[in-house]
Amino acid sequence: MKVLRGNKLLPFAAATVVGLGTMYMASKRLLESRSNNDSVSVDLNKVQKNKILTRQEAICQSKAVIHKLQESTGSPGISVAVSLNGVIVWQQGFGYADVENEVKCTPHTVMKIASISKPITSVLLAKLWEMEVVDIDRDISDYVKYWPQKYWMGEKVAITGKQLATHRAGVRDYKPIKQERKSEFGSSDSLEFDYEEYYITETFKTIKESVSLFQNDPLISKPGDEFHYTTHGYTLLSACLEGASGKDFPTLAYNLYKDLGLTETYLDNDKQKLIYNRSCHYVRGHDDEIQNAPYAESSFKLAGAGMLSSVRDLIKFGNIVLYSFQRNGDMSQCIPGYLKSSTVQLLWQPIKGTEVSWHPAGSYGMGWQTVPCDKNSSLISESVTTDRKRNTVEKTEMTVRDPGKFIVGHTGGTVGASSVLMILPTSVNKSEVNPPCGIVVVILANLQGVSLGKVAVNIANIFDRCIPHDGNVQ
User: Fold this and answer.
1) 185, 177 contact by CB (below 8 A)
2) Residue 156 CB neighbour total at 10 angstroms
3) More confident call, 195 vs 92
4) Which is the catalytic residue, given 115, 418, 431, 451?
């Protein structure tokens, strides 16, 4: 195994300590193990058949899952955190945040979180909607004056904030790399990164500059008709938030971080800024050697994939949203949630015709991916709709067939990093504990192309076996 230092490939042993050798594998073994990645995951429906675990047993089993993940992917560094009922019960770093300088990963290591930026932006959107600053059903051209009139089949069409948040606005995603230029961008493990705009090196100083990347391109579908996952759509959504609030997106984002107590979360829009505990990021080169990730800008996609964070901050964020979801008006002994329960239900409601890449039963809501345990059940009643005038949700009753058996969260992947945030709620009604009730799992890896969705579900299922029906943790 070799590591790229500058432009020079060094033998792996010379680039790091001997003790890290077990984290990497010979190229042949690495390639063979990738075909067996499914062994890291488990079926959501098998959990109830297994015995109740102690917390320590759950941690030991989860460590084995992460070690298997390291061996099968060769990821230099991985950070993990798990909470039960709002309390962090396991947090650990594996491997190295900086291979060349032998800096170890910890729960405070700050990495690119890629598309986990979308759930954070959706919470910002929801808060501004609750405050009646923005109307998610209004034509965004009322907020973004520089957005040109769009047409579909010769007819004028309008785009709403809700359509942008659910990827149904018809806005394109990254441009694919042309075949004749692929050698310029190096090798890629999957088609996911065969897009030229992943590798933009130009700095975009404003959201308006970022929107200029795609604002003159035609729509790829009629707004509201089809699901097309797009990070550019979230850039346009951030422009909408700017226009509605009168504040630039970085100000809105950092105000949100402050409100939520996220002290290790940043926008990746200033490469010269000193960020303590920031990780290096890595990719696989030819012959599977680990090398430094190429320089790539995130300033053009701040709202959709341009944030940095740690597993500790993201665990806190997940629990804040889970608490808001479970906290209702009958809980006078509990402090109010950051969002109303009905608002989180709106964010998490699966939209018909949407999908997620890592699970066949998954659907997309407003910035959140949802996976019901029973693919025939729905997370929230489809009759849930927004009321523009009252800024409320007409029907707020949960219709979860098994309230303790659905997953909600988001996965992410960008140049040099992979990420996942997963929430597995448990029933508050059957529990004697106050919200948040359930499991939150966060995994960050400083290697591109690591599939983490099923791994997080696996770990959530393991810790779910620590929680009996009364909500108490052994």
Assistant:
1) yes
2) 8
3) 92
4) 115
